[in-house]
Amino acid sequence: MVAAGVPVECGNHAESISDFALEFPQSLRDFNKENSLELNMRIGTNSGPLAGGVIGKWKFLYDPWGNCVNTAARMEGHGIVGEIQIIESTCDLIAHVFEIQDRGTIEKKRQWVHESLFPQRPKSGHLGMKRVGGCRSAATQVR
After folding, report:
1. Is residue 140 within 8 Å of 43, Cβ to Cβ?
2. Is there a contact between 62 and 137 (Cβ–Cβ < 8 Å)?
3. Helix (H, G, I), strand (E, B), or coil: what is residue 127?
4. What angle do CA 78, 80, 86 make, to 5 degrees?
5. 2: three-class secondary structure by DSSP
6. Can the peptide bond before residue 122 be classed as cis, meaning omega within 30 degrees of 0?
7. Distance CA 93, CA 95 (A)
8. In the chain, what are the domain boundaries?
9. Which CATH class is domain 2-135?
């Protein structure tokens, strides 16, 4: 789990998470090559409010939760290996910076339906992870 804009909100959380998510597959390929492994990943990203707190009695962890986190987990779970999957609300926050590819509608047990999209490379002029700026909350589920 990766989150941007917590505990302090920032205006470009979705861009920051998308930058991270788009660079992560190359890092994984490098890791696989260096360690003679064949690990794969799927990434689901969502933006919105979340709650979080420290949990644990002996080993303390900061654990975020809420609909934003649940939707990111669903996007990851229904994702395609090697792709970053987002829903339309996150697309609205990053479409000015990233090229977006439509995947179509995803439905899970008739409980929810989302239009699914894949962010692609940054549009020209976007500096990616080297960009400086503040960050609101976004959650990314990587598995």
Report:
1. yes
2. no
3. coil
4. 65
5. strand
6. no
7. 6
8. 2-135
9. alpha beta
